[in-house]
Amino acid sequence: MKKKLVALMTVISVVAVMAVNAFATDEVQTALTTGLTSASTSILGSITAVLPIALGILAAVFGVKYGIRFFKSISKG
Q: Which of 19, 32, 37, 42 has the maximal Cβ count within 10 Å?
């Protein structure tokens, strides 16, 4: 699934770059650059807000998972 998504995003990026260079005026390029910069800033802001919470949850899940596995291995020993 991830490989298909990466391939799709690569194709979309290549097509977008070709279209921008072939048909864009300075105003369109400026608007596109401004819009994409704004979008990337918003996305990075969201990732920055969510990442600490997601890492905490992930650490708790792995801690419980490997903790159970560890105690099972000790009790069988």
A: 32
The residues near 28 (Cβ < 8 Å, ≥ 6 apart) are 20
Domain regions of the chain by residue span? 2-76
In this structure, how many other beta carbons lie within 10 angstroms of the beta carbon of residue 50? Answer: 10
pTM here? 0.47
Residue pair 24/32 in contact by the 8 Å Cβ criterion: yes
Q: How far, CA to CA in Å, does 30 sit from each of 16, 22, 37, 52, 74?
A: 15, 15, 10, 34, 63
**Buried (b) or exposed (e) across 30-43, using 16+ Cβ within 10 A?**
eeeeeeeeeeeeee
Mean pLDDT by 10 residues, the chain (77 residues): 77 71 71 91 93 95 95 85
